[in-house]
Amino acid sequence: MLEVETIEVSYGRIPAVRGLSFRVDKGELVTIVGPNGAGKSTTMMTIAGALTPTRGLIRLGGVDITGKRPEEIARLGISFVPEGRHVFSQLTVGENLLIGADMRRDRAAVRSDYDRALAYFPILKERLEMPGGKLSGGEQQQLVIARALMTRPKVVLVDEPSLGLAPIIVDLVYDILRKLRDEGSTLVVVEQSTHRALENADRIYVVRNGQVTLEGASAKLTDKDLENAYFGFEDKTDGVAAVHF
Amino acid sequence: MQGFIQHLADALSLGSLFALTALGISLLFGIMRLVNFAHGDLITIGAYALIVPSSNPNAVMFIGLWPVLDTIIAICAIVVALAILCERLAFKPMRGANPSVLMIASFAVSYFLQNALIMIYGSRPKGVNLWPALAQSVSVGGVRLQLLQIVTIVTTLVLLCGLTLFLRRSAIGRQMRAASENFMMARFLGVRANLVIAAAFAISGFFAAVVSLLYVVQRGTITYDFGVPLVMAAFVATVIGGMGSVLGAVLGGFLVGFANVFFQVVLPMSLRGDRDAFVYGFVILVLLVRPAGLIKVKSVQERV
Fold first, then answer.
1. Which value does ipTM take for this structure?
2. Which of A74, A86, A88 sits opposite B190 (nearest CB)?
3. What is the pLDDT of residues B247-272, one digit of tens each?
4. A-chain residues within 8 Å CB-CB of B190?
5. Domain range for B30
6. I need a surface site. Which of A60, B39, B47, B55 has the fewest CB within 10 A?
7. Which of B178, B181, B192 comes nearest A71 by C-beta?
8. Rounded to two decimals, what is the model's pTM?
9. What is the pLDDT of residues A134-170, one digit of tens each?
10. Does residue A203 lie within any of the structural domains?
């Protein structure tokens, strides 16, 4: 569904992503996990069109979308939920949801998606007329995921949904993400915690220094594998060895 | 009583012109972080478009002689088209640039337009007598008011309601509000940057056109810097109101209008020439109390 091939992205002269590749198949929940500054968010921003890679290709359903503008990429079927939520705080919850559907012409389907989003996130139904800025962090996270779904995307990119949320809310958010996957959505979720990645993803990519250092089905990976790749431990036999920074 | 209502009407109609001008500036700032100094020149051009292009100081009416509705539509169309043209040629290539760069660019556009006007129409002031019927007084509840002031105030109220409805109820209005809060997030949801920005310039141009018609009736004379005093007051109004806030621009516009008339009335004759010093001194006081303006816009502060 979504293929990222050896992309390189720099901020000025500082490279952030160096030849990173991954793919998501239809109906998968893939997690990209890695420490701070590994290039995860940069990769997401690049797929969504906010940054342009200096090398490499991004394809959606076989179509090259590299270097297209954010609104074009959204219209082609990628919905991006950036880190830090970004609710439109002056718009009501209902208006926030409708913004996601403004580019669509299938009015009847929009109506049913709207009802479905509210069924997924019942708390939003109670807050429909409230300005988005008045919601709690957990409610805002639910709102931005619901809003992303209103675009009826082929792929949803979610950057660090757990950031700044209470653990119980994080569990709720992941329950919803897994449920979406079970109902056929394709998702890429960026996460800092290897533990939550293992619990929730079908497949995992560990990213470090702008490159994928480990990939595999979460069923076949162990905590130890992930930790080694995450922290950059070289010797995998005993798990303690030279650390390369 | 007569005096008070007369001053109130003066303040409201002056405030109306400032508010409409401030709105045109505030909308663009909210969405693009563009402080558009060329807005005043759009107002100027709306007035010049009424007459036959010529450097002859005796102006010959052209569009200004058409039936009222035709004149209004033509002037609005011309100014809106020009506003969109400015966007396409001058501001689009530097989209995403630093706000100070955008502001400098708007100075360039402003000087370009002013000098183009001088080239075509000459630099001498021209008398333009548009809709003389508006100069007459009418009696409202025993008080005599100038018809133009009533028309100005009513027009402004109608446009304010219209703009509010547009921003609240229409899809593009909703997208403009979302974009002024977080443009990139709106684009991630498929909101077209080009459409939203063109819409903002079109509305801004429309407001400039309305202001130029109302102001030209009031002044009766046009010069190449006709819109500049309005735009200066409107900038102050947007700053007092809170940069990027639509409601703030309106409040700020009326506040500056009221301050102008207030000082005009209370200052002794010998100080009236220095009225602006008092008006802007008052503005400084307001900003000392509320440095972010009457209405704080959160998204503006985060970015600064």
1. 0.90
2. A74
3. 899 999 999 999 999 998 888 888 88
4. 71, 74-75, 100, 102-103, 151
5. 2-132+140-227
6. B55
7. B192
8. 0.88
9. 998 889 999 999 999 899 899 999 999 888 888 888 8
10. yes
